[in-house]
Amino acid sequence: MKSVRTPSLAARGAWLSILIAGLPVAARAQSSFSGPYPLLDEDVIRYRSAPPNDAIARLQHRLDRGEASLDFQGPHGYLLSVLRQLNVPLSSQTLVFTKTSSQQHLISGATPRALYFNDNVYLGWVQGGDVVELAAIDPSQGTFFYTLDQRRQGQPKFVRREECLQCHASPTTLGLPGLLLRSVLPAADGWPHFQAESFVTDHSSPLKQRWGGWYVTGTHGNQRHMGNVSVKDNERPDQMDPDSGANVTSLKGLFNVAPYPTPHSDLAALMILAHQTQLHNLINRVNWETRIAIHRQETENKARGVAVDTWSQATRRRIHDAVKELLRCMLFADEIRLQAPMKGTSDFAKEFAAAGPRDSAGRSLRDLDLNHRMFRYPCSFLIYSEAFDALPKPALDYFYRQLFDVLSGKDNDAAFSTLSRSDRAAIMSILRQTKAGLPGYWRASER
Predict the structure, then answer these.
(1) ∠ CA 355-360-364 to the nearest 5 degrees?
(2) Which own/partner contact pairs does 104-111 have at CB distance under 8 Å and 24+ positions apart?
């Protein structure tokens, strides 16, 4: 993964729970967007003007109609109640101790920020914080950002925060509103060392570049990461001691864990978080790229007086290139190989796998491996997500054809060489039995 040098923190949005998005970085895959803001109001996208339809917006509608309620509970405020309402597991808790939030004055090694997530929602909680920070994936519009006031209220209200786009819409999020997981060299007081290297983290990132500024609970053998330690010598910030932060199974000696709902910052949860934040951005990118490309093509065709469904090579290439990148990520084409077994300390792995669905042989795309790679059957569980199903039909059709060709062995691209014949057959079988909406040729090929 490319490293970056980080000269300064720019404007900080209200929700920076998983990232230091204000630190400039070159994107792994550049979007063809010239930048986020000119496109947010484009008629075909309407990011600012269209009403959101994500899990947070739906919960707010239920609250407004009296069909749901939130309980304010002691020092956690609305956190636990929101987690229950959104079906976000406590076991997903991870802890970051760098000052990378608008509530940075409350964050330190002794008071890390807690993050929670499921397949379409992310939440951040800070001890004594004014708000709960939230991000949610809208099936069509991408990532929206919210806060919930942590004062007891008669009618709790999730407030949409467009100012978060100051940091959450940049080349690092593929040029559109999105998410980013970062690893930094943290000082003892929680500030990142701005002049030192920092790393964007996804499933292709070497473990030695992951989780700087995070607490990590779990075992990983002789592999090393950047978690659980801070810089001791400010003159040599890159001289941290990864051995001292390795294979930590309890955080009790590092800070007071009692104020947190659980004492874990689970290794397996961190692994999943790194994968799905990047994949959510890629799904959103394919959605926007396709809609904008088709809209502009249709506008051009109308002006030229040609058939509305006539596509130029440039339009076709723009959509197909975005889909191919999504397919590579969804099939873990660039995933690092694990050199030793990895195991978290909470029930996250068990609860994550139990969410299914499963085929007749009991197999699921959520089955973890964590010995040699992340998943036993390397095709992302986000193929079941609302956001994936909401992709425009031309993109979805092309994705399914490309995926079928890879799994059936017709496509022998070296990018997918880590997929064995048995991997491909298992993924094909699981999808045929558990994934609604597959094209007819997927079924026909069974006979």
Answers:
(1) 35
(2) 104/12, 104/190, 107/190, 108/189, 108/190, 109/186, 109/188, 109/189, 109/190, 109/230, 109/254, 109/255, 110/255, 110/256, 111/255
Query: 323-351 burial, b if ≥16 CB within 10 A, otherwise e?
Result: bbbbbbbbbbbebbebeeebbbbbbbbee
286, part of any domain: no
Q: Other C-beta atoms within 10 Å of 129: how many? A: 21
* Cis ω before 206 (30° cut-off from 0): no
The answer to whether 388 and 409 have CB atoms below 8 angstroms apart is no
Q: Is 298 exposed, middle or buried (0-12, 13-18, 19+ CB in 10 A)?
A: middle
**Same domain as 407, residue 311:** yes
Matching residue, tokens 């808790």: 93
Amino acid at 432: R
Contact 70, 313 (CB under 8 A): no
**8 A C-beta contact, residue 138 and residue 54:** yes
Amino acid identity of residue 420, one-letter, is S
The residue range of the domain holding 221 is 3-267
Q: How far, rounded to the nearest angstrom, does the alpha carbon of residue 153 sit from its chain's CA centroid?
A: 31
- Does the pTM surpass 0.85? The reply is yes
Q: Which residue has the tokens 């997981």?
A: 181
216/333 same-domain check: no
The rounded distance, in Å, linking the Cα atoms of 37 and 281 is 16
CA distance 302 to 63: 45
Q: Helix crossing, 267-304 with 393-408: angle to 10°?
A: 130
What tokens were used for 206? 């070497």
* Structural contact between residues 411 and 405, judged by C-beta atoms closer than 8 angstroms: yes
Residue 119 to residue 276: CA distance in whole angstroms: 8
With respect to residue 18, please indicate whether it lies within any of the assigned structural domains. Answer: yes
Report the number of distinct structural domains present in the chain.
2
Q: pLDDT 10s per residue in the chain (447 long)?
A: 333 333 333 333 333 334 433 332 333 333 344 444 445 556 788 888 889 999 999 999 999 999 999 999 999 999 999 999 999 999 999 999 998 777 888 999 999 999 999 999 999 999 999 999 999 999 999 999 999 999 999 899 999 987 676 666 677 777 788 898 888 888 888 888 777 677 888 999 999 999 999 999 999 999 999 999 988 877 777 778 899 999 999 999 999 999 999 999 999 999 999 999 999 999 999 999 999 999 999 999 999 999 888 999 999 999 999 999 999 999 999 999 999 999 999 999 999 999 989 999 999 999 999 999 999 999 999 999 999 999 999 999 999 999 999 999 998 889 999 999 999 999 999 999 999 999 999 987 665
User: Residue 280 domain-assigned?
Assistant: no
